[in-house]
Amino acid sequence: MREDLEVVLARDPSVRSRREALLHAALPALWTHRVAHRLHRRGLRTTARLLAALARRGTAVEIHPGAQLGRRVFIDHGAAVVIGETAVVGDDVTIYHQVTLGAVGWWSDNRRPEGARRHPVVGDGVVLGTNATVLGPVTIGDGAVIGAQALVNKDVPARARVLAATALVKEAGAAPQPMEDLYALTASAGSW
Questions:
Q1: What is the C-alpha to C-alpha distance for residues 7 and 69, in angstroms, rounded to an integer?
Q2: Whole domain around residue 122: which residue ranges?
């Protein structure tokens, strides 16, 4: 819990004290998840799901009790974050709002062998930008950045950057830019 509190102080520039950090929206979701995950592993699935539901109702962060979260995971803002049952999130990961670490869908997942992974594995030090969606049993390598609005359904190597196209501004009377120029601009796409 102390590490979770310290990471809020370190990564959220709007928080200036430990007392203020205690009011960070994602801390109750993380702390409740850590208890629910232990209960889930001990076979107390219904109690774990109840705790997860209460945390979701109070924080708008949905973390399945079966998901494994590493140390110093930072969920900024928290709103509409979804982390599925078989997801694994490494240490020192930053997750912005509206991120989904989800499965592909029941039509595919019901055909997987019992106990097979359905959700992503996120390596250490990864940044998941606002509204990033990572679907299926993919692996995001250590230190990768998944930019805002990016959709990922394939493995991402360590330290890679996956960036969605940024919006273009077309001034009145200007000619549209060719498509190849659009992708050159994505290097400036931030994750926040």
A1: 14
A2: 2-188
